[in-house]
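Feature request, filed as a ticket because there's no other form

It would be nice if the structure record came with a short human-readable summary line next to the tokens. Right now we just get the raw output. Example of a typical job, pasted below so the devs can see what we mean:
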Amino acid sequence: MKKLILLLTLIAGIAVGYVSAKNTPTTAEQSYVYICTGPSSKTYHVSPKCNGLRNCSKEIKKVTKEQAEQMGRRACKVCH
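Raw output as currently delivered:
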């Protein structure tokens, strides 16, 4: 009985570790987003082809999500 409880605890621990590891981005998977460098731009986008970037008056730049948020940008309602 003790062995069965130990085995079930071990399996549950592995399953929980797998799920949390799967949802945590690694350094190689760091999330990048796209921003318009225009003066009135306030959002960041998942794709450089998002319709929200269609009217960008300046350059479209790839930055990390953290950088975009530090600039005061919020997620685009079209692509998020």
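Something like this underneath would help us a lot:
Confidence is low (pLDDT under 50) at residues 18-22.
Helices lie at 2-23, 65-70.
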